[in-house]
From TrEMBL:
GO terms for biological process: L-phenylalanine biosynthetic process. The record marks 183 as: Essential for prephenate dehydratase activity. Residues 3-190 form the Prephenate dehydratase domain. It catalyses: prephenate + H(+) = 3-phenylpyruvate + CO2 + H2O. This is Prephenate dehydratase. Its EC number is 4.2.1.51. It comes from Paenibacillus cremeus. One of its GO terms (molecular function) is prephenate dehydratase activity. Pathway: Amino-acid biosynthesis; L-phenylalanine biosynthesis; phenylpyruvate from prephenate: step 1/1. It is an enzyme of class 4 (lyase). Residues 206-283 form the ACT domain. Keywords: Amino-acid biosynthesis, Aromatic amino acid biosynthesis, Lyase, Phenylalanine biosynthesis. PANTHER family: PREPHENATE DEHYDRATASE P PROTEIN, PREPHENATE DEHYDRATASE-RELATED.
């Protein structure tokens, strides 16, 4: 059975991997920190890593993108986007949750992942302005701490599955500031992913370095895609980390390297002196909202 490393247990990463890949078809290996997730696949302890790469409201997780670009040579093998619904969890003390305001008054401290705290800013300001906030390595770790510390005045912002895992009470759920809160995850690893789930699409991710002395190079890169009607779903510049003011362009393309058009576009881009690095050509999976 293939082994997949991820931040867990009790995280959104885990929820999303179970949703898209199933709980039984792979062996999931939990780590507390993202560098350890990456490392396990680099050293062969696991076959794949699942990494959160972008959030609707927080944007790209630059640290993870940069690790992918600068420190690893592992291609992207799949991508999915998963809704992030955040719950306020605390120790079950036998009383039923009495609703947001009353329960919130008792809370003195909240643990959560930094991204999750950022996604609940308005809620925290409105209902929990008096509370001390502490960022930890993952939301699952936040829920575990709440259980371990055993104090009903300490809470976590985490997925509902973390509450179920550690027997915590849900004070209130769906507290993210924006209801359309999604995170994009990528699966990286040396070999192709084999899964029963049919893909919903295909993407290719590349890194382009422009030649320094070629005015209008970015324009030409974009036009190589434009006239072939190849759709780009993301373009972002990231520092090369070699010289101040020099950048890579990280580009997501809604096309496969198996098509005729995309390899031709990349050849054209290389011909003007750009360096092109392929970060992966992979299936994408779409979340299907459950109808009530
Ligand atoms: O801590 C978790 O639950 C995670 O899966 C990590 C993570 C992230 O790093 O962005 C994943 C999705 C959410 O947007 C918040 C946190």
């Amino acid at each position: 059975m293939k082994r997949i490393s991820l931040l867990g247990p009790g995280t959104f990463t885990e929820e999303s991997a179970h949703y898209f890949l199933g709980e039984e078809s792979f062996e999931y290996v939990n780590y507390k920190l993202i560098p350890d997730v990456f490392q396990s696949t680099v050293d062969g302890t696991t076959d794949f890593s699942v990494i959160p790469i972008e959030n609707t409201f927080e944007g790209s997780v630059n640290l993870h993108v940069d690790t992918l670009v600068h420190e690893l040579d592992l291609p992207i093998q799949a991508e999915w986007v998963f809704p992030i619904s955040i719950s306020l969890l605390r120790l079950a003390d036998g009383t039923a949750s009495s609703g947001t305001s009353e329960d919130c008054k008792q809370i003195r401290k909240i643990y959560s992942h930094g991204v999750t705290l950022a996604q609940c800013q308005k809620f925290l300001r409105e209902y929990l302005p008096h509370v001390e906030l502490e960022a930890v390595g993952s939301n699952g770790e936040a829920a575990r701490l709440v259980k371990e510390l055993g104090d009903p005045a300490i809470a976590a912002l985490a997925p509902a599955t973390a509450g179920a895992l550690y027997g915590l009470m849900t004070v209130v759920s769906g507290i993210q500031d924006h209801q359309d809160n999604f995170t994009r995850f990528v699966l990286i690893g040396p070999e192709k992913l084999k899964t029963e789930r049919p893909a919903d699409g295909c993407k290719t991710t590349i890194l382009i370095t422009l030649p320094e002395d070629y005015p209008g190079a970015l324009h030409q890169v974009l036009s190589a895609f434009a006239w072939r009607r190849i759709n780009l779903s993301k373009i972002e510049s990231r520092p090369t980390k070699k010289k101040l003011g020099t950048y890579f362009f990280y580009i997501d393309i809604q096309a496969s390297m198996d098509s005729v058009l995309l390899p031709a576009a990349l050849q054209e881009i290389e011909a003007i002196g750009c360096q092109v690095r392929l970060l992966g050509c992979y299936p994408t999976y779409a979340y299907v909202p459950q109808t009530k």
